[in-house]
Design goal:
Layout: H1 33-60, E1 65-67, H2 73-82, E2 87-91, H3 98-103, E3 109-112, E4 126-128, H4 142-151, E5 159-164, H5 171-186, E6 189-194, H6 200-207, E7 213-216, H7 223-228, E8 232-235, H8 239-248, E9 251-254, H9 261-272, E10 277-278, H10 290-300, H11 302-313, H12 320-332
Helix pairs in contact: 1-2, 5-10
Length: 333
């Protein structure tokens, strides 16, 4: 990996996932052909990945294995445990995935992205570190924020909403921003929409009608500056992205993807802490003006934005990378 701070050799292994769907009962998972055959096929991949991992670990003889979650970590983590190599796992989301729930039994150290009361892990070996993020995600002064607005081509005196649905975009968010654009324009509220490639043309057509509405398909660098310019951020609820917004101390309107349980759980945690306004997908296109009124209200209410930003900042862990590194080193001893 050429962009890494230290040399990193990339190796791949076979891996697979277990298909579990909320709309199916327990027994239906054994009767739906596509689910049954998919799981059997991926089980063979997991077994193959285990033997590949075993060989890699014997060859390289690492002092410690770090697993970030995801099904690719399962065969490697089990192989590390059998070879008596210390295993460290980290959970970004407040809803631990199946792989980390399994590996937590064998891990020497467990690190979490959110407070420990959100996890079923053994507290004796669990540590709340937060999620490592880049140094640029930090609170900005009013002057710094104004300069970033101008750098993006906006009036520094107007409130700015930055909307993003992640790398692929989110149709609900983009359609919602298009729908409320005329109302926000009348209130002199600017919009910077990171649309994703699939939705760019649709949003760009509408953005061209409003001087204060800019759309881009993707932000390739300096995302911390784009988000830093915002008075309000409209986004999905991925754990790492929310940690970045916490580091920036931003007021957030969170629209979790309804098909992703981890985002829904994240939303519950932030809502309980009054650290974000939570909106469902369908509300962005509701018949009333609730979504527009929420955005306008936040932009016009400095005190409410400050409450949300302050509460979200409590989740920030600026030293997460260093703390996680210390835990990994401690596992070797």
């Amino acid at each position: 990996m050429a962009h890494a701070a230290v040399p990193v050799e990339v190796r791949t292994i076979s891996a697979g996932k277990f298909r579990r769907y909320s709309h199916l009962t327990f027994w239906q998972h054994f009767t739906v052909p596509s689910v049954v055959w998919g799981n059997l096929r991926d089980l063979s991949r997991i077994i193959a990945g285990f033997f590949e991992s075993f060989g890699l670990l014997i060859t390289h003889r690492p002092d410690v294995v770090f697993a970030k979650g995801g099904y690719v970590c399962l065969p490697l983590g089990i192989a590390a445990w059998l070879l008596h190599i210390p295993l460290v796992i980290h959970d970004s989301d407040t809803r631990p995935g199946l792989t980390n729930r399994v590996l937590s039994r064998f891990a020497k150290v467990i690190a979490t992205g959110s407070p420990l009361d959100n996890y079923p892990y053994d507290l004796r070996k669990s540590h709340y570190t937060g999620v490592p993020i880049a140094e640029g995600f930090r609170p900005l002064s009013d002057d710094e924020q104004s300069k970033l607005k101008e750098k993006l081509g906006f009036n520094a005196k107007e409130k700015l909403i930055v909307a993003t649905g992640g790398g692929l975009g989110a149709a609900w968010i983009n359609q919602g921003m298009v729908r409320v654009a005329p109302q926000l324009a009348r209130e002199h509220i600017s919009i910077f929409d990171i649309t994703g490639k699939k939705n760019y043309e649709m949003v760009a057509d509408v953005a061209s009608e409003h001087a204060n509405f800019k759309a881009v398909p993707f932000v390739f660098e300096n995302m911390h500056e784009v988000l830093g310019a915002a008075d309000v951020v409209v986004a999905r609820g991925s754990a790492t992205f929310m940690q970045e917004l916490a580091g920036l101390r931003k007021a957030v309107v969170m629209i979790p993807a309804r098909s992703l349980g981890d985002q829904l759980k994240n939303a519950k945690v932030y809502k309980a802490a009054d650290a974000a306004e939570i909106v469902e997908d369908s509300e962005t296109l509701g018949e009333n003006d609730g979504f527009a009124n929420l955005l306008i209200g936040l932009c016009n209410n400095t005190e409410r934005r400050e409450v949300l930003a302050r509460n979200l900042y409590r989740f920030a862990r600026p030293n997460a990378a260093q703390d996680l590194a210390k835990l990994i080193i401690s596992a070797i001893r």
